[in-house]
Write a structure and sequence with these properties.
Blueprint (H helix, E strand, L loop, with lengths): L8 H10 L4 H7 L18 H10 L16 E4 L1 H5 L3 E5 L2 E8 L10 E5 L17 E8 L2 E4 L9 E4 L14 E4 L6 E4 L5 E7 L5 H7 L2 H10 L5 H12 L4 H8 L3 H9 L7 H10 L20 E3 L1 H5 L3 E3 L2 E5 L10 E9 L13 E17 L2 E8 L3 E4 L4 E15 L5 H9 L3 H8 L11
Antiparallel strand pairs: 1-17, 2-3, 3-4, 4-10, 5-8, 5-10, 6-7, 6-9, 8-11, 12-13, 13-14, 14-18, 15-16, 15-17, 15-18
Helix pairs in contact: 8-10
The structure holds fe (ii) ion.
């Protein structure tokens, strides 16, 4: 039996608006295929056949008008739930890792916890890297080695250390940001188990690369940026898409044509920032998108933070103590900190609210999380090895005594969406209307 829920009336209404058509028109066009009248009142109980006929008429995939299953407010997995996800991985002829999955909403890229099994006397075999950027944290109990290239040097063979000082061990270990396709592998550095949390997340350009651009466009993008800087390539195309030649624009900003031409042609040529701003203002484009950038990173593209440097960042934050972990402006969505909770007097605290979704991994003690949803408060005891996922823009807080690792990513809302929110005209009205908009595009009923 077909249970309906193949169409969401708000989404259907939006696609009627986008396609500048009406239900009356759809019913007329589809009367040979559907023997009843579709209305906004009955559309949510239609069978999958009818939903696909409607989607086909609107020239969209049925998923575009399908009812959402919304992400939860929060998810919880106990230590034993996480242990049950364990899968051993063989590599280089040995038991190399155990992988465990941390709780995440359906369809999300999930962070993983790994046991490092490769013994210290064996050079660990490299992987091929992956598309997803990540922050990786050494979780102990023992130090491990991290390797990032065939050739070993100070950037590519690192003792990935654990803080063993009982006074500050809530700042658990060293961490690093890993860009897409950075090769990596790990082995034990002592005679004992080492663990890492590999906080892999979705790349914001995955869909661009894998779905949106056809092969011809994709190959042309690669070719046009060969030996060039992508911000300059995109700026040149932006200038051209607004109907200006480089020759013309250099006259407009009063800079010799050769200089502007070379800036776009050679990576090493320069053009003063004030001229790039002037140029962007002239074509009415946002200069911050196109300026040259500098990133703090080493020869394999990672940025590493030794736990001793994390210790130097210990600070008070709201009712907690925190210390930074590695992060990079190459991928601003990924960030986090070690967190110490020492709130024994108050039974309820609700002082955290983030513009990102977050994972909390309990590294010690007895803590209680408090989450507020509308007028409802939920509290839950959490212990060492437990893990939580909390949605963005959710009031929550912790009481009790213990320590956690908090890491946030952009899968709920990413920095590109934040930029778009910032650019949106009358954003508060926009937000009020956008989610449940059932207004038609303005025709006589
Ligand atoms: Fe990885």
């Amino acid at each position: 039996m077909d249970s309906g829920q193949h169409i969401d009336k708000i989404k259907l209404n939006r696609w009627l608006n986008i396609r500048k058509t009406t239900l009356k028109e759809i019913n007329k066009r589809l009367k040979n295929k559907i023997n009843f009248e579709i209305t906004l009142d009955n559309c949510e109980s239609l069978d999958s056949y009818t939903a696909s006929v409607v989607a086909n008429y609107l020239e969209i995939e049925p998923i575009k008008i399908k009812k959402n299953t919304f992400n939860p407010i929060f998810l919880y997995s106990s230590k034993s739930d996480i242990e049950r996800t364990r899968r051993p991985i063989k590599k280089d002829g040995i038991h190399f890792y155990n992988y465990y999955t941390l709780p995440t909403p359906k369809g999300y890229v999930s962070p993983v916890l790994l046991d490092i099994m490769c013994p210290k006397n064996k050079l660990p075999k490299l992987n091929n890297g992956h598309l997803e950027p990540a922050i990786t944290i050494s979780m102990g109990p023992s130090d491990i080695h991290a390797r990032f290239s065939k050739k070993l040097n100070k950037d590519t063979w690192i003792k990935f250390k654990i803080n063993k000082d009982p006074k500050t061990k809530w700042v658990v270990g060293s961490s690093y940001f890993e860009p897409s396709f950075c090769k990596h592998t790990y082995s034990q550095a002592e005679n004992g188990l080492g663990r890492i949390i590999s906080y892999t997340t979705r790349s914001n350009i995955e869909t661009l690369c894998m779905e949106k651009l056809n092969n011809n466009s994709y190959n042309n993008l690669i070719n046009i940026n060969k030996n060039k800087k992508i911000n300059r390539t995109l700026l040149k195309l932006e200038i051209e898409s607004k109907g200006y030649s480089i020759e013309e624009i250099s006259k407009k900003i009063n800079v010799p044509y050769e200089k502007v031409k070379n800036f776009f042609k050679n990576r090493t040529s320069t053009l003063e920032k004030k001229y790039i701003i002037k140029l962007c203002k002239f074509i009415n484009s946002d200069p911050t998108l196109f300026l040259d950038r500098n990133f703090k990173e080493d020869t394999v593209g990672k940025s590493y933070l030794d736990y001793k440097d994390s210790l130097k960042t210990i600070r008070k934050y709201k009712s907690y103590k925190v210390a930074s972990i590695a992060n990079s402006i190459r991928f601003p969505d990924l960030s986090g900190f070690f967190m110490k909770v020492s709130n024994l007097k108050k039974p309820y605290i609700n002082d955290l609210f983030d513009s990102k979704c977050s994972h909390y991994f309990v590294t010690g003690g007895d803590i209680k999380i408090h989450i507020r949803e509308n007028d409802k408060n939920t509290s839950k005891k959490i212990r060492e090895g437990d893990c939580l996922w909390v949605s963005a823009f959710t009031h929550h807080g912790f009481t009790g005594s213990g320590s956690m690792l908090k890491i946030s990513d952009g899968q709920n809302i990413n920095y590109l969406e934040k930029e778009d929110l910032i650019n949106t005209y009358n954003v508060n009205n926009f937000l009020k209307r956008a989610k449940n908009d059932i207004k038609n595009w303005g025709y006589d009923e």
